[in-house]
Amino acid sequence: MKLFFKKILVFVFPLFLLVVGMGFYLRNMNSLYKEKLSGIIEHANEIEILILGNSHASYGVNPNYFTDYAFNIAHPGQSIYFDKELTLQNLESLKRLKYVFISLDYHSLYFSSQRGERNIWSYYGHGIKHPSEDYNKADISPFLLGYYPRVSFSFLRKDLLAKWKFRNHAQYLDFNTEVGVIKTDVLVKGFVSFSGTNTSDFKNNYYQERMNGHDYLINNSTEEEMVLNELDELITKLHSKGITAIFFSTPTFKDYNKILEPDIITHNNLVIEELCKIYNMEFWDYSVKNDFIKEEFFNPDHLNKKGAERFSKMLNSRLKLYNN
Predict the structure, then answer these.
(1) Burial degree of 242 (CB within 10 A; 0-12, 13-18, 19+)
(2) Fold category of 31-114+149-323 in CATH
């Protein structure tokens, strides 16, 4: 019997060490969430403009081209709920904040809870919990119940490869990045973007695949009212502090825009028009009506560095006129 338990122990103990070790690695692993949060805290006394939103704003608005000190806290897959919570939890320390740009895209009004495992992943990055999510299991083991083993090993593999590949570089982005982001770029004011154009994505079947995903989310959404309440909480708080909120949308490619569902666009426009009346706000909509060319996009609905530079300069110029 003792021999039997010894054999079990010999088998189980390495697995236990693996789970504990991977859990420690994952809890301390750097991420874009962590980088953006630490950036807000570090530059709280300087920030005058905040950019909120999902991947469109994250990759499409470069704070470096604003006259006033801007910071980008948008993130791929980020919902308005997390935009709101990130802003409000740091609001008291943002003494110089004057403007908050709130990104509203084709699908922004339809999801409060982030899709897939993003609620858990963002929680590990900045500690914000969505009310629909149970975080007890994620707290027990990031490896088994948070990121899950397949994703965890993928993070570890990419991390080790990057450490080896860029070992002679003074700096590199030491967190998981999407394909198209150069690892030796520098994250500045919460911003890093795609380089070049992924020409293979500029095809009708890719457009349709993207739209099918968005339309499925929209047509099956039960969260629109929740999102509107979250916007109300955010904007009301900003206005009480004398901070101006501005809705905006980033450019998307002309051929991609042709297959957008007209009824959804009409509904979005009606809702946003009503919001602008209620809160006395403006909506700077560049999504469909724009002259951006393919070379300024990484894929049909995300700007690259070149496009982000031009778009950010446009926002800055318009903000100057708005001030005047």
Answers:
(1) exposed
(2) Rossmann fold (3.40.50)
How large is the average pLDDT for residues 56-82?
98
Which among 222, 45, 13, 33 has a CA at the least distance from the CA of 117?
A: 33
Please report which confidence band the pLDDT of residue 2 belongs to, taking 50, 70 and 90 as the band edges: low
DSSP 3-state of 301: coil
Phi, then psi, of 102 in degrees rounded to 5: -110, 115
Nearest to 301 by CA among 56, 52, 51: 56
CA dist., res. 148 & res. 134, Å (int): 15
Beta bridge partners of 50: 71, 100
Query: How confident is the model at residue 4, as a pLDDT?
Result: 56
Tell me: pLDDT of 163 over 90. yes
Q: Which two tokens stand for residue 323?
A: 């001030």
Closest CA to 70 of 32, 101, 38: 101
CA-based end-to-end distance of the chain: 84
- The partner residues of 246 in beta bridges, in order of sequence, read 101
Of 2 and 121, the structure prediction assigns the larger pLDDT to 121
Take residue 251 and report the two structure tokens written for it.
């450019």
State how far the Cα of 231 lies from the Cα of 138, in Å rounded to an integer.
28
Question: Which of these, 238, 232, 240, lies nearest to 275 by C-alpha position?
Answer: 232
**Position 288, amino acid:** V
Q: Which residues contact 230 (CB under 8 A, 6 or more apart)?
A: 80, 81, 84, 112
pLDDT band at 14 (very low <50, low <70, confident <90, very high): confident
256-286 confidence digits (pLDDT tens): 999 999 999 999 999 999 999 999 999 999 9
Distance, CA of 232 to chain centre: 20
